[in-house]
Design a protein that fits this description.
Immunoglobulin-like, 8-stranded mixed beta sheet, 3 domains, 4-stranded antiparallel beta sheet, 29% helix, Ig_sub, 4 helices, binds 2-acetamido-2-deoxy-beta-D-glucopyranose, alpha+beta, Ig-like_fold, membrane, single chain
Length: 276
C-alpha cells in the first residue's frame, strides 16, 4: 500500500516536487515510527518464587523519577528529592521492592501477578517507558515416590510467552546433573527411571531466554527409601527366638523332673509311716 502511495504520484512530478514530496512523507512517517507501540519484554516467573523486572539503564540515577505500574495501577515509585515511599496496594504489600538500580523485585510471585508491568522514568523533561509482560511457568509436584519407581516431572511454559521468545529448557537434579528430557510444544517432561535417594530434593527446570534471562522453576521431590532388609537383624531375631524355645524346653524338663522326684519322696515317706 505504501509502495503504491509513494511510487504512483512520483511519476507525475518533477525533481523538486519529488524531493519535497519525499521530505513531507518522511516527516509524516518518522513520528509515527517513534510512537509505535513498544513490544512488551517477556519475563517468566513461577508462583511462590521471586522475579526481578530489570529496569533498562537510562538517565542519571540521582536525577530520575521511577514509577512502576501493574495493569495501570501504581505499585511503587521513586522520587529523587523525597525519601518517602508510597504504600503499595494491599495485595502487593511486603512483596515488592526496588533494587538500587530501580529494578522491581517481586517475592513471592502470586497467581494474580501475571499481567502487564510498566516502568516509567523521568529525567527533567525526558521520559521513557518500558513494558513487561509476566508469563507463568508451571511445574508439577510429584507425590512421594518409593525408590526404584519412575519419577516424572513436567514444566509448562505459558504458550504466548513461549511462542514469543522460544526459550531453551533443561533440567537440574539434586545431584547437579544436567538432563534434557523431552518436549511437546511448550510442555517439557523428564522421566527418571529407577529413581533413588540421589534424586531426593530440589529439582530445577531451567528456562533460558534471551542473552542472560534465566528462570529457575523449582519443585521438591521426595523419594522414600525402601526399608533395607538387614540380614543380621533377621539372624539375630531368629536366633533369639530359638534360644527362648530352648530355654522354655529346658525349664519344662526341669519342672517335670522335679515333680517326679517329689512324688518319689512322698511315696517313700508314706512307706516309712506305714512301717511305724
Ligand atoms: C539457577 O540455579 C542454578 C543451580 O542451582 C544456579 O547456579 C543459578 O545461579 C540459578 N540462576 C538463577 C537465575 O537463579
Amino acid at each position: 500500500f505504501i509502495a503504491i502511495f509513494v511510487v504512483f504520484p512520483l511519476k507525475f512530478m518533477d525533481l523538486r516536487e519529488r524531493m519535497s514530496f519525499l521530505l513531507v512523507l518522511l516527516l509524516l512517517l518518522a513520528p509515527a515510527h517513534s510512537y509505535a507501540k513498544a513490544a512488551e519484554i517477556v519475563v517468566f516467573a513461577q508462583v511462590g518464587n521471586s522475579v526481578t523486572l530489570l529496569r533498562k539503564p537510562w538517565g542519571k540515577n540521582e536525577n530520575i523519577h521511577v514509577n512502576w505500574y501493574f495493569n495501570d495501577q501504581i505499585l511503587i515509585y521513586r522520587n529523587p528529592t523525597a525519601s518517602t515511599q508510597n504504600q503499595a496496594p494491599p495485595n502487593w504489600q511486603g512483596r515488592i521492592s526496588l533494587s538500587t538500580d530501580f529494578s522491581l523485585k517481586i517475592s513471592p510471585v502470586t497467581e494474580n501477578d501475571f499481567g502487564i508491568f510498566e516502568c516509567v522514568q523521568y529525567e527533567l523533561t525526558d521520559r521513557t517507558t518500558d513494558k513487561y509482560k509476566l508469563y507463568q511457568v508451571k511445574m508439577s509436584t510429584p507425590p512421594p515416590l518409593l525408590s526404584g519407581a519412575t519419577l516424572t516431572l513436567s514444566c509448562e511454559i505459558e504458550r504466548e510467552g513461549f511462542n514469543l521468545v522460544h526459550p531453551s529448557i533443561h533440567w537440574l537434579g539434586p545431584d547437579d546433573k544436567i538432563q534434557n528430557g523431552y518436549s511437546n510444544g511448550n510442555k517439557y517432561t523428564l522421566s527418571v527411571i529407577k529413581a533413588s535417594g540421589i534424586h531426593n530434593g530440589n529439582w530445577i527446570c531451567v528456562v533460558q531466554y534471551g542473552a542472560n534471562s534465566i528462570l529457575n522453576a523449582t519443585t521438591n521431590v521426595v523419594i522414600v527409601e525402601k526399608a533395607p532388609v538387614n540380614i543380621w537383624l533377621v539372624v539375630a531375631i531368629i536366633g533369639g527366638i530359638l534360644v527362648l524355645i530352648l530355654l522354655a524346653g529346658i525349664a519344662v524338663i526341669i519342672i517335670c523332673r522335679h515333680r517326679k522326684v517329689m512324688k518319689y519322696t512322698r511315696r517313700k515317706r508314706r512307706f516309712c509311716c506305714c512301717k511305724k
